[in-house]
């Protein structure tokens, strides 16, 4: 007898996919969840800082308005990245991330197909510092890519951050 039971990775990426539906970005819908000891300890999605107006409320993407290409000049975006929000939400709740895993799922806003939801350099630096062990990301082929945060540190010690090959944008 066969089972239709999904794997833990599929389960957690599916939850990150639902979290992504809360995103308030015209370009991308990204959701992130942090798991430690097989329990969800934090979630985050792309969205404006608390108590500020998001891009949907403004009716436009500021980076589109300024003709800024994808993957550049994140400091001019109204939104906080999903990875950052998941880390921030854990801090607000006083929850340690040490040894946890982050699952990230992304799509182009309004389209159902997954994208390579790899963290940008800013998020990677935060993920290195917050103590997570693995980052599991959706990919455009419908599978997933698993990164070991310790490997990023090793690679950057040897090659420097600029040589990184798996990044968003």
How is this structure best described in words?
There is one protein chain. The protein is α+β, with helices and mostly antiparallel strands and 169 residues long. 32% of the residues lie in helices and 20% in strands. The protein is built from six helices and five strands. It has a five-stranded mixed β-sheet. The chain is globular, with a radius of gyration of 16 Å. The N and C termini lie far apart (44 Å).
Number of helical segments? 6
Order of helices and strands: HEEHHHEHEEH
Terminal-residue CA separation: 44 Å
Q: Which geometry do the CA atoms define?
A: globular
Strand arrangement within the widest β-sheet reads 2-1-3-4-5
* Helical residue percent band: 25-40%
What percent strand?
Answer: 15-25%
Unreliable stretches (pLDDT < 50, length at least 5) are none
- Total beta strand runs: 5
Largest sheet: 5 strands, mixed
Oligomeric state, counting identical vs distinct chains: single chain
* Arithmetic mean of pLDDT: 91
What would you report as the Rg, rounded to the nearest angstrom? 16 Å
What structural class should be given to the helix and strand makeup? alpha+beta
């Amino acid at each position: 007898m066969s089972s239709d039971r999904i794997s833990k990775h599929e389960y957690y990426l599916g939850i990150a996919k639902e979290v992504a539906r809360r995103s308030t970005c015209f370009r991308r819908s990204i959701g992130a969840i942090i798991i430690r000891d097989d329990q969800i300890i934090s979630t985050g999605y792309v969205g404006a800082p608390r108590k500020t107006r998001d891009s949907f409320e403004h009716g436009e993407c500021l980076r589109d308005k300024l003709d800024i290409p994808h993957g550049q000049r994140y400091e001019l975006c109204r939104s906080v990245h999903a990875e950052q929000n998941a880390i921030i939400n854990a801090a607000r709740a006083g929850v340690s991330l040490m040894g946890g895993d982050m699952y990230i799922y992304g799509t182009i806003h309004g389209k159902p197909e997954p994208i390579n939801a790899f963290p940008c350099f800013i998020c990677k630096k935060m993920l290195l510092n917050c103590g997570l062990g693995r980052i599991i990301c959706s990919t455009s082929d419908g599978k997933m890519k698993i990164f070991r945060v310790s490997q990023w540190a090793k690679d950057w010690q040897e090659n420097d951050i600029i040589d990184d090959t798996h990044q968003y944008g």
